[in-house]
Amino acid sequence: MEQHRIGQDVQGRFITFEGGEGAGKTTQIKRLKSYLEDRGHKTIVTREPGGSPGAEKIREMLLSGAARDLGPRGEAMLFAAARADHVDHTILPALERGEWVLCDRFADSTRVYQGEAGVDPAYLDLLETAAVAGVRPDLTILIDVPPEIGLQRVNSRAAETASGGPDRFEADDLKVHERRRVLFLELARSHPQRFAVIDGRQDADKVTGDIRKAVEAHFALEIGEGAHGPRD
Ligand SMILES: Nc1ncnc2c1ncn2[C@@H]1O[C@H](COP(=O)(O)OP(=O)(O)OP(=O)(O)O)[C@@H](O)[C@H]1O
Ligand SMILES: [Mg+2]
Q: Domain named Thymidylate kinase-like: which ranges (predicted)?
């Protein structure tokens, strides 16, 4: 099922970023976007839940906790509904235009977060198949950090930006975050061709370097030097 897409004429490249809270996903996605654009590749950054107008409305319900009463299975359905809208309106059109799509969380986050919450993996597979409509990542960058480090980063970011308290999923117990970390690593182990696991405990520049190497290795000759030559 991996790297399978609707149609044969889809020229773009689809990279997802996964990992726990505060792993560095958003930071690193921005850096990879500049890197690819400097090499002449049109690149969009998007995120889940959300990434399209319809899905952003569902994001609000999910992250505020308003959907919590639906239970993990209902939440999983909302994630799938948001993902379907995001694929249809943002991801697939960009891939069809030949662009690189960098997505902050995707279906693996549902497998991990709703799987950890007790939803049957077979049920999650069905929802995923329906939601992604054949659009699957070419490469998934898993930024791995122990949750106590990630949560500490998120807390200091919140203090700096006055962005309010933790969201619905950040607020879970440390044990829950630890189980999610293990599930992400297990997923990576069971899909070794698609995943690159990056040590997110390193300083941000080192993480950036490791991600570049993983992307260059995965897409071999496709990156090139572009008009501007390599940065830093
Ligand atoms: N390698 C790193 N070392 C130290 N701090 C980092 C590193 N990477 C990112 N940070 C800082 O940690 C905080 C969290 O980073 P970022 O927002 O990129 O993580 P995230 O994985 O997107 O988090 P979230 O799951 O909350 O969206 C930010 O304040 C960021 O500047
Ligand atoms: Mg983020």
A: 17-210
| Orientation of helix 107-116 relative to helix 174-190, angle to 10° | 130
Q: How far is the CA of 27 from the centre of ligand 2 (A)?
A: 7
Ligand 2 centre and the CA of 49: distance in Å? 11
CATH architecture of residue range(s) 13-222: 3-Layer(aba) Sandwich (3.40)
Ligand 1 atom with least separation from CA of 104: 22
Distance (Å) from CA 173 to ligand 2 centroid: 19
- Is the Cβ atom of 161 under 6 angstroms away from ligand 1? no
pLDDT tens-digit profile of 141-192?
999 999 999 999 998 877 777 667 778 787 788 999 999 999 999 999 999 9
Q: Where are the domains of the chain?
A: 13-222
pLDDT, tens only, 47-61: 999 999 999 999 999
Would the annotation count 25 as a binding residue?
Answer: yes
Q: What is the per-residue pLDDT across 73-132, written as a single tens digit (0 to 9) for each?
A: 999 999 999 999 999 999 999 999 999 999 999 999 999 999 999 999 999 999 999 999
CA-proximal residue: ligand 1, atom 23 (nearest): 22
Residue nearest to atom 10 of ligand 1 (CA): 24
* 19 carries a ligand binding annotation: yes
